[in-house]
Amino acid sequence: MRTRVWDDLEDSGVARFPFPPHGRIPNFAGADDAAERLADQPEWEAAETIKANPDAPQLPVRRRALRDGKTLYMAVPRLRDEQCFLELDPTELAPEEYDPATTVSGIGEYGVQVGPEAVGEIDLIVSGSVAVTEAGDRIGKGEGYSDLEYAILRELGLVDDETPVATTVHERQLLEGGGGGGGEDELEDEDETGGEGEGTVETEPHDVPMDLLVTPDRVIRPASSRKPTGLDWELLEDERLAEIPVLKQLQD
């Protein structure tokens, strides 16, 4: 399914830098418009603190967050440090620093690295997606860090069932079907990506469903789905526990 979406974005000319779109959260034409549409939603307006992914298509989202006076958090790559979040406080930055500070390379210079205990309650999460069903089932790159970051925040009581989770995508990343979390659902023979043949999106209890799907053209609010309630320790292998200090800290 990921390959179908990546191929379609490239073949249709929708993909934007960095190239190729494969193996990453793909950037797309209209990402700025999707960010503007997200910023028009009541969930955005009510949020004071936003946790966002660091990928290219959500760069306009991160910049808009600072311009709107919202504190922004991003995870340290692969959660490799005990202080596993980077904080950008717009009151601590000059307006001309907002753009460079929200890039992958710039946040290390302008952001303040903090541990989970220093992170305030999160009002809105923005996730990047390779694809997402209209029922809110998200397909990421396949490494699981987005869901793991959510589980850590949930374990610490910084998010709950009422915390909205949004994604900005191109229309071609939207897949018909999906079950809104939990179980399997067949997609239509011809989905939004133009690919032929049936596909299956399987979700597990640790997968985080999306509450807001925002494209350059519209907003979809899937029916509510149950969110993970924290870390599932049985799924965490010793190797991952050793690689991610905050997990060891929480386990202890």
Brief characterization of the structure:
The chain is of the alpha/beta class and 252 residues long. 26% of the residues lie in helices and 17% in strands.
Structure explained in plain terms:
This is 5-formyltetrahydrofolate cyclo-ligase. Residues 183-201 have a biased composition (Acidic residues). It comes from Natronoglomus mannanivorans. One of its GO terms (cellular component) is cytoplasm. This protein is 26% helix and 17% strand. The chain has helices spanning 2-12, 31-39, 42-46, 59-67, 98-101, 107-110, 145-155, 238-243, 245-251; strands at 49-52, 71-75, 85-88, 112-114, 124-127, 131-133, 138-139, 165-168, 174-175, 183-186, 200-203, 212-214, 219-220. β1, α4 (59-67) and β2 (71-75) form a beta-alpha-beta unit. The chain is globular, with a radius of gyration of 17 Å. It has an eight-stranded mixed β-sheet. A three-stranded mixed β-sheet has the order 7-6-9, with no helix packed on it. A two-stranded antiparallel sheet has the order 10-11.
